[in-house]
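Honest question from a wet-lab person: if I give you the sequences of every part of a complex, can you actually get the arrangement of the whole thing, not just the pieces? Trying it with mine:
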Amino acid sequence: MTHKNLAENIIEAVRNVIGPGPVSLHAPSFEGNELSYLKECLDSTFVSSVGKFVDQFELDLAEYTGAKYAISVVNGTAALQIALMLAGVQAGDEVLVPALTFVATANAVTYCGAIPHFVDSKTSTLGIDAQKLREYLVSFTTQKSDQCYNKISGQVIRALVPMHTFGHPSDLDELIAISHEFNIALVEDAAESLGSFYRGKHTGTFGLLGTLSFNGNKTITTGGGGAILTDNLELAQRAKHLTTTAKLKHPWEYRHDEIGFNYRMPNINAALGCAQLEQLPQKLQQKRELFQKYKMAFSKVQGVTLFSEPINSKSNYWLQTLLLDENQVDYRDSILSETNKSGLMTRPAWVLLNDLVPFKKFPCGDLKTAQSLSRRIINIPSSPSLLRSAE
Amino acid sequence: MTHKNLAENIIEAVRNVIGPGPVSLHAPSFEGNELSYLKECLDSTFVSSVGKFVDQFELDLAEYTGAKYAISVVNGTAALQIALMLAGVQAGDEVLVPALTFVATANAVTYCGAIPHFVDSKTSTLGIDAQKLREYLVSFTTQKSDQCYNKISGQVIRALVPMHTFGHPSDLDELIAISHEFNIALVEDAAESLGSFYRGKHTGTFGLLGTLSFNGNKTITTGGGGAILTDNLELAQRAKHLTTTAKLKHPWEYRHDEIGFNYRMPNINAALGCAQLEQLPQKLQQKRELFQKYKMAFSKVQGVTLFSEPINSKSNYWLQTLLLDENQVDYRDSILSETNKSGLMTRPAWVLLNDLVPFKKFPCGDLKTAQSLSRRIINIPSSPSLLRSAE
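Yes, you can. This is the full assembly:
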């Protein structure tokens, strides 16, 4: 620590990189064909459930991620709900999710009538600690008819949902191994990691299904939107069917063969997505450059570390992340307060989900590292356009 | 009947009104500030969860409908799910819905873990037959602690959901009386009836809550969208809270106090809604004129009647509706086939919900009229712009 306090040092380091003025945490930017595609929607009158941009966006997403199929939906939460249903999650099942994630991960589990079961994270990835999870599963589960049962609750552990925190890939090799070994379906919550790769393969394409989000605060946005990724044709077709009210194809008849959902992405939102996806490589480049500049700027700041992409990973650096040293955590709230007061929007990690009133009753393992991380994380301004405006 | 068959007579009557060329059932049109408002979203970078158009659209909707509060959401199905939850619908409860409605009405009930209980419609409104419902309730329910119990299933009948079919108001006086008398909450599914009034008051504002849809096929569209209407401040606040992940207000903390939903309407969709709502009066006028022209054209066609707005009602005439005479119902499919082949998009009523595989197991009363209507209804092209293009 210099003679200044940690909050002042952090503000100085960030300002050195991005210059003066009020800055949001992550603002979208529209520098391509957005208006032209929106105009095309209006001119064609196709703004809603049918339209060429929905099809195009799905093809573009599949091509970019390398998934065989991409199904666009109304948001990332809806994507995860449907992906879990398609992975076989039923009422009463347990689903393993990190305690350190946005609330949507666990909400989607409850929409299936299932039970979120919270597990710990590790410091090097900010995602699920696979080694600790393995030990946990060995101790409290048993296999019956190729299904994994929680010995305490008696429920089936049906799915495992790693979330790639702030865009940083979780330990996918280990999590896939656990999924196979314990007969638990792997469904990736890649809401934050469009543009993030693990061993050269896009996040969200390792599990049976993966899900993306295009909320306004994400690397690219459709206003609100999400997508389901899968390599399985049958699951892809079922995903499209379930998200479009399960209506059977017919020139005029309205017949639905199961209880479906109105979760399609409107054409006008997909139009925005097509234009945004064209600019993704450049946005990712800008975000990596921003990380490099922050790295330089924070190299001299004691008491805090800028989080770098994990081993074997190329991250989208969605939200740039500071980790406070353990002995600085008492300053977290004053740092958040000072930075926000100075016009730099910052935020802490989410309150751990098992600490929220609606989730207190659900099972959880030891969460020591997640508890530590939730006190140590501070996200700092991360928009891809920040560097350019500072130049 | 003339020497021509009924299909040919229908095609001739429609063509006399709207002229030649292929015509969809209901196409949106964008003739106002749509592009300008969309551009404003892009320029401001506010396309997503926050933005001035969301607030404006909610104020405009409240003002137009006369509801004290309007809460915009991602679609009409989501609106109804949340409205039912706010009306107290819980897992295991029964909810009275017409069998003759779009599948979303019953889907929303099941999302609450509740049971749709199908009731009959009447020919003069195409909505719930209130008199028949009263007799039904008298015979199979009982009151305990001011709650209405189904004597057969033992479940609470928690809500009654009239749907204003094709924009025609149901018998609201009678349905309100039943709601009070039997202690069943009234939640109106006004998805099809924006711009429809009963005794001078807007549909969707009679129940504890009401819901709207702005899907692409509706009178005005936001791409995909819906809204919840209510006069109750507490319910309005709860609706906003529940549809925005139940996050507590805080400058940086992410804390949620119940299991909420990601159901907010993005700003870019609300921008479209604001522009569309400005044009609603003119669209309604055009739709009434279209009805008048169809009325003249069909006055000479035997075997079929053009449906007129019910007594005490001013309807938006969302979908223009033919009712085949009972002795003509065998021709329905050939009429649908011939009209669609000739480039006039037409459609029948929905398959009755109790006849769909996923709903077969649920309770239903006698549905004689709904069964008859489902065989007799044919919707014909209804876009507000049709008249103008024929001129």
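Two things worth pointing out. Chain B has two domains: 6-29+280-390, 34-278. The two ends of chain B are 28 Å apart (CA to CA).
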